[in-house]
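cron nightly-structures :: item 1 of 1
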Amino acid sequence: MSFYTMNKGPEYSVCDALQGAVHCFSTRLGGVSKDHLSSLNLGMHRGDEKENVVENYRILGDAVGFSPEQTVFTKQQHTDIIRVVTKENCGEGLFRDTTEVCDGHITDCPDVALVTFSADCTPVLLFDPVRRAIGAVHAGWRGTAQGIAAKAVDAMVREFGCERQNIRAAIGPCIGKCCFETDWDVPQAMLDALGPKAVTAFSQKGEKYHVDLKFCNALWLQRAGVGALDISPDCTACCTDRYWSHRKQGDLRGSLAGIIMLK
């Protein structure tokens, strides 16, 4: 299975594992935002003009197959909270505020475009083509240590009756092991959560450690029993010409999004 870059209009990626669902992982290319937010900023709280952000969703949605009005945003605070949403939640985040904190959400309703944000953290999208259910997850290192991707799978099983082996998952572009330099607290959190297999995810360089968040989230998803998994090869911090990276750009950046919707 593989990721593919689409660039007829805005640039974004899709993958084999999620075929059958409307989906994308955005880049920073192809929108209307200006200056340091140039050009496909998808975050409402990055200092951008609201009309630019709405237009960016329209441009991306026209290419991918959703409308801005169908989107539902997460209100991310590095939690492991998974929220069930419906069509009543469409428009939350883009057209009206949402007060309910979550770093992942799931639905079995068609025409609800789940949005999760990143700018180095790991976006994870989930799709069950049999039960017809989806999920979108934001996994920073804290959420990764808490197993939020696996908890989203568990929630799909619990709330919608999904069979684990029918759920397909995709890990989108995020900071790679090459660039995610940390102190010992991050490897320790992964070891505490995942056990000895997490050793593969980090290496020591002097007094610092480099940690592979994609590996850790893949391990959680495999343990959760997903039937298929695609992993983007891209590192957001290595490719700031294509992606936003908080590690490299700080607050002078926009937001990427992973988006998924049932047709």
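cron nightly-structures :: done
The chain has one domain: 11-261.
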